[in-house]
User: What shape does this take?
Amino acid sequence: MDPDWLPFHPHPSKPAFKVPPGAVDAHCHVFGPEAQFPFAPERKYTPCDASKEQLFALRDFLGFWRNVVVQATCHGTDNRALVDALVHSQDRARGVASVSRDVTDVELRTMHAAGVRGTRFNFVKRLVDFTPREVLAEIAGRIAPLGWHVVVYFEAQDLPELWDFFTSLPTTVVVDHMGRPDVTKPVDGPEFGLFMKLMREHPNVWSKVSCPERLSKSGPPEYDDVVPFARRIVEAFPERVLWGTDWPHPNLKGHMPDDGKLVDFLPKIAVTPELQRKLLVDNPMRLYWPEEN
Ligand code: 0GY
Assistant: This one.
């Protein structure tokens, strides 16, 4: 583990907010354990271990029923730890993998059988090396027939340059953490306005309204400066929003959130029981467990 790595909170508080029955934590990760699932040689960070057992214990403690486990960059395109978590979840976890253009159809079908329903394209420069757009487009074309979607992670200042690529994708496109807005800028300003326009003009684009702890400058436990941004998206696009803890919170510097307090952030951004049910149950179920609808 990196010397300055902050491990996840050892004793999160019990949230005051009770999530609706069947709620899905739609963005979380597993790291290793390294002895069983070594980290990728090309990784940009070395985290602490964060096992599937610890993830499922947190799920139960916070009151969630299901998880969507997202491949973290420290595992590169080796999805074994992710798949291992899915197959041991008793159908209570789905996954988003990272694949290279070399992935075979058999590997894709095997991952699908384990519960993978998407692939992640990461554009955050501190996390990954550059992959040419045509390679990503080729991968998107391969996974689309499986009914998978593409999850994209990028920073707000890069959206203009990524716009044409995102809007050319043939699948549902799920944006991590609202496209990482700079929350010191106005919610009505041009930068966040461009993200709202992306969602308004492209009904296949969804957003995770997650990670106040990553975006906030005002800080814990309220993360009040993030509320107007997340609330704006939830109220404008209630059918296309997802939320997740982001446990075990890779690369946080400064503070490690109390996951219970993150759950208590939810009623500030989804202010009615109906919006809460869409955000935490209906939307993730439609995307990840459509057979149960
Ligand atoms: C996140 C955020 C980060 C890291 C990763 O895959 C990853 O390594 O996603 C980050 O450092 O901002 O979504 O967990």
Notes: The two ends are 41 Å apart (CA to CA). The longest strand covers residues 116-122. The mean pLDDT is 97.
